[in-house]
Amino acid sequence: MEFYLTALLQGLCFAGIAVGIYISMKIFNIPDITTDGSYTLGGMLTGTLLTHALPLYLSAFAVLVAGAVAGAITGIIHTKLKINALLAGILVSTALYSVNIITAGRSNLPLVNTPSVFNVISFTTNVNLNTLIILLFIVALIIGLIGYLLKTDFGIAMRATGNSETMIRALGVNTDRMKIIGLALANALTAFSGFLMTQQQGYADISMGIGIVIIGLGSVIIGETLINWLNITSVWASLLLVLAGAVVFQLVLAVTLTLGVNANLLKLVTAALVLLFVSLPRLSLLRQHD
Amino acid sequence: MKRNSYLLIFAVTCLLAACKSSNKSNVPVVGFVDAFEDATIAQAKNGFVDALAKNGFSEDSGTIKIEYQNAQGSIPTLTQIVNQFVSEPVDVLATSTTLSSVTASQKTKTIPIFMMVSPTPERAHLLDAQGKAPANLFGTVEDLNYIDTSFSIIPKLLKPKGSKLVIGMIYNQSEPQSADAMERIKGLAAKLNVTLVALPLNSSAEAQLVTQSLLNKNIDAFFANPDNTVFAAFETILKSCEQKNVPIFTSEAGLVQRGAVAAFGADIYQWGYQSGLQAAQYLKTHKTDGLKPEMVKIRKRVYNPTAAKKYNITVPANFEAVK
């Protein structure tokens, strides 16, 4: 069971990415590739700041700001320079590679005897359980804040920007600014995922962000399936299901590993299992309507 | 509510599938972690397995169980693999290449880890405030001294075209040992009166482009610093260099087999073998007394006869030809 617990922890660490991608992809309909770079940025910055003995709360704050700046740059390139969102994200993500290397000064930064959010408070002596409790608390905080934000007038304007840009512009909302803020928010969350993950795995590495956007997308799509399936309209429930998607995605990987699947088939099996999961509602449509 | 029953069946299947019968037998279990797929790096695993077999731990005779997992270059997968081995728990962890070793070292402080193809704990930044490495780290490691010997072969074997020997190299910014090696070679080149042209790259996809731009700088030789990118893209580098008649030197025997002229350095198979011997000793005694991260013992001077002939390079007698 211990192993599934660690997979669950990993899934919860990806909550930030999942919610971030949910904001950029589902709310704004912007495919944001900045994720790969800003996740690593969060990780490398965390590694650098913690090894330089900066306190945790300052590091967390710095990571959030750095991620937001990265996202805002993508937003500015996309809206002000009228460059395709995918390309804008790729550009920023590529530039971030150098930023990340320069930030840390090296490509792999193990955290040895640095403080970590997971041992700030000790509820139990079992390290993983303690991590779980703290992670649940942090994730609840993230979901709570984002859920609340999406419920405010500002959040409704944000959601409307994704739904019908022309209409909301006619109502006097600056949609460019909305998109920039939205991307900044999404990437701040992504960088925060990097912050958590670095402490969870004990090191930051320049290649940690490769393909991470897929994990976010996978989580959102799994969540999306559940949302459509259960006819959910509430923002809270949607966010929770996206989070569940992130956890399921990691658990699927864990199950595949325990089954002793040949390592070469790992990705294939993961894809197949996710496909099965996502196509289940479609399969039920094949039944005769009685 | 038919679909809910589908969901239930699916969930139950998943859960059942996940329950592996964990009947702990007396056979020791080794969890072998590889971070990515590479022909040369894979030899380390063969060496490790052979060393265990020589000491009476082989899968064929049922005296050991080796669980092999490869993360295929994905860090989240790598972390999960290590978590799985730690929670089983396996008796021994074997880690090949830096990233696997660092991940394992951060995830367990109790299960002995036998590293291979990894840098010293100090170079991997794994030392604590007192300058001590984690107590469960064993295996075989390498510092940067090997580079000196490999690099200084080049002026001995090669006459410069111009007034000074120009050696080109590429290094991977995303690998600590690669960037460290480059810094080291920079200092070395100055001592040997050699001009070094070093270009950074970030992935094996860029190797061809960067190699071409190096070759346009009129280099006399190419030094293939053995990092993951060079391993992955070696054939590309080789092809470009052959077209321009530039010989390749390196510090790893596997690359000489693949077409570099000569090397003096660790043999990846022997590297794994040395770690395997340590692991076998631990499995026999279940004590870690006397075990510590050792330096690679077997370094070979090897050359590739075909490549040497192509470039008319006379290799000293103490070099042996690769098979």
Descriptors for this entry?
heterodimer; A: 290 residues; mainly alpha; 76% helix; globular; B: 323 residues; Rossmann fold; 2 domains; six-stranded parallel beta sheet; elongated; transmembrane helix (chain A); ABC transport system permease protein (chain A)
Strand content of chain B: 15-25%
Determine the oligomeric state from the structure: heterodimer
Shape of chain A: globular
Counting helices, strands and paired strands, the structural category of chain B is alpha/beta
Strand order of the biggest β-sheet of chain B: 7-6-8-9-10-12-13
- For the termini of chain A, the CA-CA separation is 42 Å
Spell out the helices and strands of chain A N to C. Answer: HHHHHEHHHHEHHH
Q: How are helices and strands ordered from N to C of chain B? A: HEHEHEHEEHEHEHEHEHEHEEHE
Span between N and C termini of chain B? Answer: 67 Å
Biggest interface and residues each: A-B, 50 and 48 residues
The H-level CATH homologous superfamily of the largest domain in chain B, spelled out, is Response regulator
The fraction of residues assigned to DSSP E strands of chain A is: under 5%
Protein name (chain B): ABC transport system substrate-binding protein
Keywords (chain B): Signal
Pfam families (chain B): ABC_sub_bind
Subcellular location (chain A): Cell membrane
